[in-house]
């Protein structure tokens, strides 16, 4: 039986692929959007666009337009000013089901058993839902998030963007006491990369969805070439979906994860306790390794399954 999930996202090139992957391998109950890679109105439009391109009948609810405490920040260097720069952008004809992402999360978890929350952007919506309705914490199957790192960050030397963008929300989520929290951080996501071969495969497939995603990847990879000299770009957000749908592809370690919320140089750092013999009680399953070849095959197959 396919897992039931709510995908909370801020599309974002890798979020766009996560939507297609989740819709193929999960019972995707709802998509909720948050300010992150781009402002909220753009991340919501991008989620609607991906549903439109793939013909998905999934409600999209927009959510928080700013973090809990810190000012809003976006990632145009990685994703462009729309969040999905690259290929020609079709006009978006779909509309959001509501602007009540937090209520959507709460009501959906209360209405369904064993729902996974899969946040792949800043954790603002999920933190607000947990704070407003603590009862949902014990009802969820788990939370599988893309964020953080065991090691260097990407927006600062110590912090990954999603956690840095709303560190106070991240601390709430890691500390919420959910039955299971899985963390796919940069140390893991940089093992799953898309390069020219996969882009050519998608373009050769020729469907509307595959061609659009190939164009997204062209832009996304060009940015990594320019900024870091890389010939393949990490697919961060699909990892959080695969950690629910195909957990056997991963190696996890039980760890306690805290979030630095105030540090001048370390805001947004995920403090992963790896000390031998530590007394810290694990609150997360931290992903350390992924079968990248198998995962990339699943992603390509999912994208190519749409017309």
How would you describe this structure to a colleague?
This protein is an alpha/beta fold. Helices cover 41% and strands 18% of the residues. The chain is built from 13 helices and eleven strands. It has a nine-stranded mixed sheet with strand order 3-2-1-4-5-6-11-9-10, sandwiched between helices. Helix 1 runs parallel beside helix 12 (238-245), helix 1 crosses helix 13 (292-304) and helix 5 (124-132) crosses helix 8 (167-174). It is globular and about 55 Å long. The model has no long low-confidence stretch (mean pLDDT 97).
List keywords for this structure.
307 residues; alpha/beta; two-stranded antiparallel ribbon; 11 strands
Brief sketch in words of this structure:
This protein is α/β, with parallel strands linked by helices. The protein has 13 helices and eleven strands. 52% of the residues are buried.
User: Count of DSSP helices?
Assistant: 13
Sheet with most strands: 9 strands, mixed
Distance between the termini: 24 Å
Q: Give average pLDDT, whole number.
A: 97
What is the strand tally? 11
Give the amount of beta strand, in percent. 15-25%
Query: Quaternary status of these chains?
Result: single chain
Structural class, from secondary structure content? alpha/beta
Helical content stands at: 40-55%
Rg over CA atoms, rounded to whole Å, is 18 Å
Any idea what the shape is? Answer: globular
Order of helices and strands: EHEHEHHEHHEHHEHEHHEHEEEH
Uncertain runs are: none
Strand order of the largest sheet: 3-2-1-4-5-6-11-9-10
């Amino acid at each position: 039986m396919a897992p039931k999930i709510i995908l909370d996202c801020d599309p974002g090139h890798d979020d766009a692929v996560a939507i297609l992957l989740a819709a193929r391998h999960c019972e995707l109950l709802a998509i909720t959007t948050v300010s992150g890679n781009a402002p909220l109105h753009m991340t919501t439009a991008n989620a609607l666009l991906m549903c439109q391109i793939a013909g998905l009948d999934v409600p999209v609810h927009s959510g928080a337009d700013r973090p809990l405490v810190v000012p809003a920040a976006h990632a145009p260097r990685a994703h462009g000013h729309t969040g999905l720069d690259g290929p020609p952008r079709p006009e978006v004809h779909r509309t959001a089901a509501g602007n009540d992402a937090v209520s959507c999360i709460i009501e959906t978890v209360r209405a369904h058993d064993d729902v996974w929350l899969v946040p792949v952007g800043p954790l603002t919506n999920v933190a607000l839902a947990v704070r407003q309705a603590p009862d949902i914490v014990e009802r969820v199957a788990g939370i599988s998030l893309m964020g953080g790192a065991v090691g260097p960050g990407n927006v600062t030397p110590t912090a990954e963007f999603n956690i840095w963008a709303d560190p106070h929300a991240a601390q709430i989520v890691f500390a919420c006491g959910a039955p299971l929290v899985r963390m796919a951080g940069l140390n893991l996501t940089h093992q799953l990369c898309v390069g020219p071969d996969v882009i050519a495969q998608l373009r050769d497939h020729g469907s509307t969805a595959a061609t659009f995603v190939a164009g997204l990847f062209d832009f996304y990879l060009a940015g990594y070439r320019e900024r870091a000299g890389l010939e393949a770009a990490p697919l961060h957000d699909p990892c959080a979906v695969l950690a629910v749908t195909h957990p056997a592809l991963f190696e996890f370690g039980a760890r306690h994860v805290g979030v630095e919320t105030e540090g001048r140089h370390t805001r947004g750092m995920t403090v992963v306790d790896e000390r031998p013999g530590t007394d810290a009680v694990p609150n997360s399953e931290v992903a350390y390794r992924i079968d990248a070849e198998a995962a990339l095959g699943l992603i390509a197959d999912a994208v190519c399954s749409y017309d």
